[in-house]
Design goal:
Blueprint: H1 2-16, H2 20-41, H3 50-58, H4 68-81, H5 85-104, H6 111-130, H7 144-155, H8 157-177, H9 188-217
Helix pairs in contact: 1-2, 2-3, 2-4, 4-5, 4-9, 5-6, 5-8, 5-9, 6-7, 6-8, 7-8, 8-9
Organism: Calorimonas adulescens
Protein name: RiboL-PSP-HEPN domain-containing protein
Length: 218
């Protein structure tokens, strides 16, 4: 019971401070502690606590032992359900960026690499929006490595779609991070509605990418 309380605090602290590398681990650790707490309470004088622990445990039933991005989506869903909109936007944007780094072979812990990928994504998306979803060859970078990465982003439909999502999330995240001090700012319902929609859309994109990957392996 005491251990479960510590694990819950650890998980919520990691969410509060957006500790991406620790989120999956702490979520899975908490899920395990909840299962043990349920077993203990069912056989003890605190059995009335069992339904509460089962409710908490159900919130973690979709977490994966080996799929970090799926867990990112679940954490963002937790954030959305607990009104942690700013954390949800931050974790979602950085989680997508992490997934893209893994997908195209860039070290996800390399700050410079992440920044470069983020800049490319932003540049590609802006250019596509300006040119009716088309990106001319003349608009791609001259650097061979950068051009190769841009090519991968454009050719992989999942990456391309997630690149657009990350662009939109970044705009909302900037609004909330700067406390709305801009000519046009969003209100609470806009942030909440945006995060609701983003979770659904990104989950669909990711599931589609996983299905394509599985079919290619077979």
């Amino acid at each position: 019971m005491e251990n479960m309380g510590k694990k819950l605090k650890e998980f919520t602290d990691n969410i509060a401070t957006c500790r991406g590398p620790l989120l999956s681990e702490s979520a899975l650790s908490l899920a395990d502690s909840l299962e043990r707490a349920i077993e203990v309470t069912e056989k003890s004088y605190v059995k009335p606590m069992t339904p509460l622990f089962k409710i908490l445990s159900d919130l973690f039933k979709n977490f994966s032992q080996d799929d970090e991005f799926k867990n990112t989506i679940e954490v963002v869903r937790w954030c959305n359900g607990h009104n942690l909109i700013q954390q949800g936007l931050t974790i979602l944007e950085e989680g997508i960026l992490t997934f893209l780094c893994d997908r195209i072979g860039v070290d996800k812990c390399d700050v410079h690499g992440r920044e470069e990928i983020s800049k490319m994504i932003n540049g590609i998306t802006v250019q596509k929006l300006k040119n009716n979803n088309n990106l001319e060859t003349s608009q791609t970078p001259e650097d061979d490595q950068a051009k190769s990465l841009v090519g991968e982003i454009l050719q992989d439909s999942a990456i391309s779609k997630l690149a657009e999502e990350i662009y939109n999330i970044a705009n909302m995240r900037n609004d909330i991070n700067h406390a709305g001090w801009r000519p046009t700012f969003n209100k609470y319902n806009s942030f909440k509605g945006f995060l609701d929609k983003a979770i659904t859309e990104i989950e669909v994109i990711y599931q589609g990418a996983q299905e394509v990957g599985n079919s290619e392996e077979t």
